[in-house]
Amino acid sequence: MDPTDLIWMNGDFVAWEDAKVHVLTHGLHYGTGVFEGVRCYETELGPAVFRNAEHVERLLRSAELYYMPVPYSAEQIRAATLELVARNGLSSCYIRPIIYRGYGSMGLNPLEAPVDVTIACWEWATYLGEEGQRSGIRAKVSSWRRISPDSLIPQAKASGQYLNSVLAKIESLKAGYAEAILLDDHGYVCEGTGENIYVIREGEIATPGQSNSILDGISRRSVIQIARDLGYTVTERDVGRAELYLADEVFMSGTAAELVPVVEIDDHRIGSGSPGEITRVMQASFDDAIHGRSERYREWLDVVTPRDLETPAGEAGAAAQRITGATG
Predict the structure, then answer these.
(1) What digits encode the pLDDT tens for the residues 253-271?
(2) Beta partners for 181?
(3) Do 156 and 216 belong to one domain?
C-alpha cells in the first residue's frame, strides 16, 4: 500500500502516519463497523468518484442497520471525500470510508461507545489483477456458505461479516484459485468474496437476487442497467451451482475488482475457456462508464473540482455533535 498525505478523521485532515486508533477500540474487538469501497477515476472532466452519492447512502444505511448514529450528513461525507482526493492530489484512487464504534467502552453492548468516521484513499490497482481482467480468472465454489440472513444482515457492508469472505478467500488461494464463489444457506449461488456474479447462457444474463443473501453492489446496479440498455435480458433469480459449469460465460463485478471474466470454475472450463463476447461487450461498456467516456452515464460521476480545495479542513464536520451515548 502506497501512503498518501492525508486521511479524514472525524472532521479533521490528519497525516497518514498519525491516523491511529486505540487498541481497545470497540470495532477492533467485535467487528462493529461498516464501510464502503469506492473508486475515483481519471476522466476528461478531471478526477471523478464513481457513484459517490450511492456509496454514501449505502454506508449510512448499513450504519443504521447496526444501530450506529452517524454525526455527519450524507452531504458532509460526500464533500469530505471529494476534498480528501483533491488534497492528496490524486487523479485516480481507491477510497475507503468506514464508520465504527470507537474507544470508550468494552463488552457486547456497543451503545455507549462513540461512533467514529474515517475516510482514506490511496492508489490501488484492480483487485484481481490486470491479467485477470484481460484473460479471466479461475475460481472455486467455497466450502464456506455465505452468512445467513437469520444470523446477520447480508445487505449491510459490515466489517465483522467479512470474516466469512476472508475464510473463503484463503481457502481458494491455498487451493490455487484466484477467487471463491460462495453459495447461500439454501445452496444457491450467492457471490464472490467481494464481487457479484453473473451467468450467461444463450444470450441471457442471470444473477442472484436479494433473496440469495447478496450484497446489493453499486457496481451490480450499474452492470444491470448497462446490460439492459444494451438490449440484453437480465434476470435476477436463484442460480444453481451446476449452472456455473454449464454457462456459456461467467463474469464478476465489484468496485475493487471492476468487471472480470471467469473462465474456469472447479476445474470446469466455462464456454471456450476464454472471455466470451457478451462479457467483453459488458467489460468495455462498464469501463467507458467509470472513466466518463459514455455520455449516457455521466450522471454517475462526482467530479473533483478546484472548489473542493476551498473548504477549510474540518468544516464538513465542525458543526456536527459527536455522538457518544446510547441510541435510545
Answers:
(1) 999 999 999 999 999 999 9
(2) 141, 192
(3) yes
What pLDDT score was predicted for residue 307?
76
**CATH number for the domain that contains residue 43:** 3.30.470.10
CB 226 within 8 A of CB 282: yes
Structural domain that includes position 198: 130-296
Query: What residues are labeled active site?
Result: 157
Residues 95-111 pLDDT 10s: 999 999 999 999 999 99
What local confidence, expressed as pLDDT, does residue 311 receive? 57
Number of domains in the chain: 2
CB 133 within 8 A of CB 283: yes
> Cα 291 vs. chain centroid, distance in angstroms?
17
Q: Do 142 and 171 touch, CB atoms closer than 8 A?
A: yes
Residue at 22 is within a domain: yes
Q: Are residues 40 and 109 in the same domain?
A: yes
pLDDT at res. 271: 97
> What does the block give as the cell for 123?
492508489
CATH number reported for the structural domain that contains residue 252 in this entry: 3.20.10.10
**Same domain as 93, residue 217:** no
Condensed to tens digits (0 to 9), the pLDDT of residues 25-66 reads 999 999 999 999 999 999 999 999 999 999 999 999 999 999
Same domain, 226 and 179: yes
